[in-house]
Amino acid sequence: MRSSKSRSRNKNNRNRPSGNVVNRVFDSSGPEGKVRGTPQQIIDKYNQLARDAQLANDRVATENFQQHAEHYQRMLSEAQREMDARREEQERQNRERQAERDRERQERMDRQEREANASAPAADPGSAAQPDVIDVNESGDTGLVETPEAKAEEKPKSARKPRRSSPRKKPEPKKAEDAPESSAKPAEGDKPEAAE
Fold first, then answer.
1. How far is 134 from 144, CA to CA, in rounded Å?
2. Burial of 82 (C-beta count, 10 Å sphere; 0-12/13-18/19+)
3. Could you tell me if 6 and 46 are in contact, meaning their C-beta atoms sit under 8 angstroms apart?
4. Do 17 and 79 meet the contact criterion of CB atoms below 8 Å apart?
5. Which of 36, 2, 34, 39 is nearest to 17 (CA)?
6. What is the residue extent of each domain of the chain?
7. Contact between 75 and 17 (Cβ < 8 Å)
8. In sequence order, what are the beta bridge partners of 36?
């Protein structure tokens, strides 16, 4: 046999809704008997019974059914408000978690960038891309220092002296055997002929 204490504890737990009230099935004991269903189904059933009682000109039964419907309507409204409050709280927590993750990700990226900049050698300005075109101001001055190579490129080709690939060799004198007879030297014993 149960003690009165345990009975009173169970009775208090009975009134407290457990779980999701919107989808929970209730047994309602009304003036016409038991009505079973979710709060919305019970509300609809009691509203129908109230209309039927009104058509029968039974004002007491109509009021009774409307009060039962109102009770379940209040339960349903409170449960929906609680669900909305829980949903808003969850959304707020999700936004906070997402903001925290974004902050951590940004801090990690900043840290990696700082480490990369610290470990990278100083950039050589000579390794940077150079412009293809040299800007010339109105006076025609490029602002560059003239070098001997640049001066040589500016001279027209006709003014340049042609280079010789190798020095010229002097022709060797021809031997007497190869020379024609008229140009041959007179022999020692011969006298030169007098020109006539």
1. 9
2. middle
3. no
4. yes
5. 39
6. 21-116
7. yes
8. 27
Q: How far apart are CA 73 and CA 154, in angstroms?
A: 100
* CA–CA distance, 38 with 141 (Å, rounded to integer): 93
Sign of CA dihedral 14, 18, 21, 24: negative
Buried b (16+ CB within 10 A) or exposed e, 24-34: eeeebebeeee
Classify 127 as helix, strand or coil.
helix
Q: Convert the pLDDT of each residue in 56-74 to its tens digit.
A: 999 999 999 999 999 999 9
- Quick one: pLDDT at residue 96? 94
Distances (CA, A) of 50 to 8, 35, 81, 190: 34, 14, 27, 172
Residue 33: strand pairing partners: 30
Does this model's pTM top 0.70? My answer is no
CB-based contacts of 65, cutoff 8 Å, min separation 6: 30, 31, 46, 47, 49, 50, 53
Report DSSP letters for 129-191, one per residue: PPPSS----TTS--SPPP-HHHHHHHS-GGGSPPPPSSPPPPPPPPPTTTS-GGGSPPPTTSP
Give the integer Cα–Cα distance in Å for 184 and 180.
6
List Cβ neighbours of 144 (8 Å cut-off, separation of 6 or more): 134
